[in-house]
Design brief:
The chain is 53% helix and 20% strand. The chain has 310 residues and is an alpha+beta fold. The chain has a 5-stranded mixed sheet with strand order 4-5-6-8-7. Strands 1-2-3 form a 3-stranded antiparallel sheet, covered by helices on one side.
Length: 310
């Protein structure tokens, strides 16, 4: 074709008087990107006229808009499907968690409290008749009450990340990383930028859940004893990176049936980031480890005391 076609330009590639005809080409451009070329052929030189070239330019412009709209429609439909899958999974998990939590309350905490109450009732019955029996019942009741307090705190920790309510994201992540290192025997690291700002509680909770999901996926699939979490600030944006040095995978080839948990985990991280105007990128490949990188604009309004806790 010789010279480079500029967006919106039309030209006749060949026009002669020996009956060979003519060809005109116009680029299809959307959002500054050339999607392809619109090519029109004629058996004569009619395409050499200004009117023909102007018409071709308009056709190319309309075609570009149609292609761009189709692409946007596919993106919106894909995101909508991902969001529906994510919401469905969240609802299912919430139901499962509610059922499990109710069982833990009934079979654990409630039973302990009932047993403690019974021992204290027995101690009251023995009060004037047998001081030794009263003392034994009081000791058992106090022991069960202490166990009830521990069980209640354990259940509360399951509902909220430890330390997030009172001390913020960084402290909660330090506790979480220490837990991973102890439970999974992983080499873990948490790097925090010194200028990491105070954030609204809801955003801190979202970032914690993203790190938690990425770490859970790494523990399940990566098969690597090394994990790094980094919090950074640059150009008015928050950066959260979770990196492992495991076996890696092809992000575009995650199978919906065999790897449903990982697929929905990736969707969940992307949706949490998107809700805050950010993005979540996944860089991985077989044998290359995995890096989850989240970038979110720093909220313009500083967190208030009411907004820093639920």
């Amino acid at each position: 074709m010789g010279q480079r076609l500029e967006p919106g330009a039309c030209r006749v590639l060949g026009a002669d008087g020996d009956g060979l005809g003519s060809v005109a080409i116009a680029p299809l451009v959307a959002r500054g990107e050339c999607l392809g070329l619109l090519e029109v052929c004629a058996p004569d030189e009619r395409l050499a006229s200004e009117d023909a070239l102007a018409l071709l330019g308009r056709l190319a412009s309309e075609s570009s808009i149609a292609l761009d709209n189709a692409s946007l429609y596919r993106e919106v439909e894909s995101q909508g499907q991902q969001l529906r899958s994510f919401v469905e999974e969240v609802i299912t998990k919430e139901e499962q968690e509610s059922r499990r939590f109710a069982l833990d309350l009934h079979d654990g905490l409630v039973q302990l409290i009932v047993a403690a109450y019974q021992h204290l009732q027995s101690a009251q019955a023995w009060r004037t008749r047998d001081p030794a029996a009263e003392e034994r019942e009081l000791e058992q009741g106090n022991l069960l009450l202490r166990r009830s307090i521990y069980e209640a705190r354990r259940l509360i920790a399951q509902l909220r990340p430890t330390g997030l309510d009172d001390f913020g994201l960084v402290h909660a992540l330090r506790l979480y990383v220490a837990q991973i290192a102890g439970d999974a025997d992983w080499e873990t690291a948490l790097d925090v930028s010194p200028d990491w700002p105070a954030l609204p509680y809801t955003l801190e909770a979202a970032l914690f859940r993203i790190v938690q999901e990425a770490s859970t996926n790494a523990l399940k699939y990566a098969r690597s004893p090394r994990l790094r979490i980094a919090l950074s600030v640059a150009d008015g944006r928050l950066g959260v990176v979770v990196q492992d040095w495991g076996q890696g995978f092809d992000p575009s080839g995650v199978n919906e049936d065999t790897e449903r948990g990982r697929r929905l985990g990736l969707i969940g991280m992307r949706e949490r980031a998107r809700l805050w105007g950010g993005e979540c990128r996944v860089a991985s490949g077989p044998g290359q480890g995995t890096t989850i990188a989240v970038s979110i604009p720093i909220p313009q309004t500083p967190p208030t005391e009411e907004g820093s806790a639920p």
